[in-house]
Every structure is written in structure tokens, then in C-alpha cells.
Amino acid sequence: MDRDALGAFLRRRREVLQPDEVGLATRSGRRTPGLRREDVAFLAGMSTDYYVRIEQARGPVPSEQVLGAVARALRLDLDERDHVFRLAGHPVPPRSRRTDHVAPALLRVLDQLDDTPAAVVSDLGDVLAQNRMATALLGDQSAYSGLERSSIYRWFMQDPHDRAMCPPGQLESTTASHAAHLRTSIAQGGEDDRTREMVATLLERSAEFREAWARHDVHHRHHDLKTMIHPQLGELELFCQRLATEDRAQALLVFTAAPGSTTADKLHLLDVVGSTPLTTP
Q1: What is the DSSP letter of 143?
Q2: Is residue 92 one of the residues assigned to a domain?
């Protein structure tokens, strides 16, 4: 591990990033350039002290998970991410089509969306990044691991949270849509260990998936009008717009409501209270 080179590289990348480029408020009167160390730590989900020790070439060797989080926080492209891994003495992550490294272009757009729910998802339904409004609307998707990171997998495994958000009249169409989306994603992106495990597990454990999978439906949705049941706000009618990367491996989902609608009022309330539970009279 080249601690000094790693610290110098991260420091330089931090200093050339401005707060508004990563969705943070610009601070007046600042004399130092770029982000503060605590900004990077916040964006990466770690303590400021831990990140400071990385930059100052102190402490233990950062794990691959930590380096991935720092790379996303600093909006590094794949070449820069690989450089960080090499400096830390870790093997470079494979350049597969499906990756947890969020496309910087999508992150830059997500950073600018503060008052409307938005999230970056993989073609398998993994939420890779979400803003505070998406967390308030959909819940904290970072809590899932393994195959359960995929909303498609959770749906067919009867996840109670995901099922509760779907109106009863749309259960059948949502089931068909999830199966078709998964088949299309595999056809376009190819099979890998994870997709093979997902399909095999669902075929074994979900009769609903076996029936939907046997239809061989395929499609990709670019935009849609969704009805969701929020646990506190009730029914929401939301337009879902997808902005996909060129290879369709990742997409930015943006949820909006018709101006002046009841849902627009509810989203405004969600913007105010965030994830704080609403009290009922």
C-alpha cells in the first residue's frame, strides 16, 4: 500500500470538487478550495476521523467497501477508482457491465435533485444511490444485502414492505412487469453468477415467478405513471421517468407529481418532514 500517494490523490480530488457539484450547500466566506474532509466522510457514510486518517496516511488499510464508498463520494470515474484500489494494495474490481460503482454522470444529476424523489438503480433493480426524498418515499434501500438488494427478487419473495406499497389492483401487472424486465436485462447484459443464482432461486421458491417467467415476456419501461401506497401519506400517483446509461446497466429514476394535484401536496409534506414519522391526531 502506498499510503502517501493514496492520501495525496484523495486530497487533490477533494479539493477540486465544489459543494454544489455533490448536492451540498455552498458555504459563504470559505477560504479553502473544494470539499471539506467532513463533507467526503458524510457522503461516504463514515466518520470524519476515519477519513482524515486515510488522507493523512495513518490508520489501517481501508477495505474495498470503504474505498468504493470514497470513490462514489468523490465522483471518481472508473480509471480513478481503479487507481485508488491499486494504491491501497487491493485488486482492481472487474470492469463488468454490472457494477456497484455509480456512473458519475447519473450522480451529478442526482446531486441536483433535492425536492423530488430520485434514485440510481441497476438493471436488476438494486438501488445504488438515493436522495433524501427517495429515502422518505421508498425507505432506506441500503439496508438490503445479497440477492435482496434487487427489488425484483424481493417482489417474488413476497417482501412485505414492497408488497404493501403496491395497490391490490396492480399486483398482477407488477408481477408481469418485474419478470419481463429481468428477462430483458439478462438478454441485453448477459448472464453472470448473480443473475443465474437469482433466477434459479426464484424458480425453486416462487410459483408466481415460475408462472410469469414461463411467458417469456420482454420489455423496458422508460416512463410510467405509478400508484404507490405510502405507509403514512396513503395513495400517491407519481410519474416515473428513467434516464439510462448507454449500456442500460444503470438508470436514474425520478418521481414527480402533476402540479396542483393531491400527490404534489403530499410530496411537499414529505419534503418537509423527510423520514420523520408523522403523528396522527
Answers
A1: G
A2: no
Domain containing residue 56: CATH number:
1.10.260.40
- In whole angstroms, give the CA distance from residue 15 to residue 19: 10
The CA distance from 204 to 178, in Å, is 17
Of 87, 120, 146, the residue at which a domain comes to its end is 87
Res 65 pLDDT > 90: no
Q: Would 220 be classed as within a structural domain?
A: yes
Cβ burial 163-189 (10 Å sphere, 16+ → b, else e)? eebbeeeeeeebbebbbbbbbbbbeeb
- In tens, the pLDDT along 25-50 reads 776 656 677 889 999 999 888 999 99
Claim to verify: residue 117 and residue 234 sit in the same structural domain: yes
pTM of the model: 0.72
When divided into structural domains, the chain yields a total of 2
Instruction: Let me know: does 208 contact 169? Beta carbons within 8 Å.
Output: no
Q: Is the per-residue pLDDT at 165 higher than 90?
A: yes
Residue 73, domain extent: 3-87
| Strand partners of residue 109 | none
Enter the C-alpha cell of residue 6. Answer: 493514496
